[in-house]
Amino acid sequence: MKNFLSMVLLSFVFVSKCFPQTANPQQYKYVFTVAKDGSGDYKYIQDAIDAMRVYPLAPIKLYIKNGVYTEKITLPADNTDVIFIGESVEKTVITFNDYSGRGKLTTFTSYTAKISGNRFRAENITFANSAGPVGQALALYVDADQAVFKNCRFLGNQDTIFASGEQSNQLFTDCYIEGTTDFIFGPATAVFQNCIIRAKANSYVTAPNTTQGKKYGFVFLDCKIIADSSVTKLFLGRPWRAWAKSVFVRCELPGPIAPAGWDNWNNPANEKTAYFAEYKNTGRGAGIKERAHWSNQLDDRTADAYTVENIFSNANANTPGHDWFRQTSPIAFEWPKDNK
After folding, report:
1. How far is it, in rounded angstroms, from Cα 125 to Cα 84?
2. How far is the C-alpha of 140 from the C-alpha of 21, rounded, in Å?
3. Given this structure, which CATH class describes domain 30-323?
4. Catalytically active residues, by annotation
């Protein structure tokens, strides 16, 4: 009897703690507004993040009004299903100036924004690292899975975007990305669709760190690569790790693209494992006659597999929201009238 009563008591405690989390979902706030002029709920983005419910019952929308938000922000892994909505991409700016070697900072702690909460989405926002050409300085560190960035800008120099998370899937669509060396790098499966990518120095656009056995690494679909007038020799990528994968499909490539196109990062052994490929690219830098002999040119049949739907369709196929990558139309939310 004593053991029975103990079990009943424990069950009551368990239920009493768990039940309220879903009993009154309306008690939690699901829409926030940040405005530097004080007209919103908060003046700082991180304050709004800190006020959000973790593992929410519905997506949390954070409206960010125009302004330059000079702050280093982190969206932790338990802050899932968060949407950032900027008022305008050019005037809604999140910026900071950390860089590797500043105090105890490393490449991976130099970020302006670190996004770890799964099913994150951002639209109409600029993420910038204003440290200048001083070495590694991330504008964005994203290891969230099923993350979407639409009509966003990423400004920096070396290591602008760290697409992290060995099992993470990320989509960048209609974005602008600029940098100098390895400015798109990491182990995630990441698709860049209809993006403008600006190279500001003689260097490398990508440095994928793909894990062995993954079918896709970085895929660029219908993007336009541009280069500053000072750029004379630009490589599409080099392998940060042996099994790196980076593919450019129907992209426009500028004249400064090196004839070889790809670099082995001073390690011929990488040529046997890395997978770098192209398909029907155009522009002055798209010539393939002198491409690295170990790189690949896709045929029509192989290229058919390089679509957003095919790349992401098998990821988390049995979980709710597995078609997250199809939700790329403009966010259909109105700005909160009481905070506008």
Report:
1. 8
2. 32
3. mainly beta
4. 159, 182
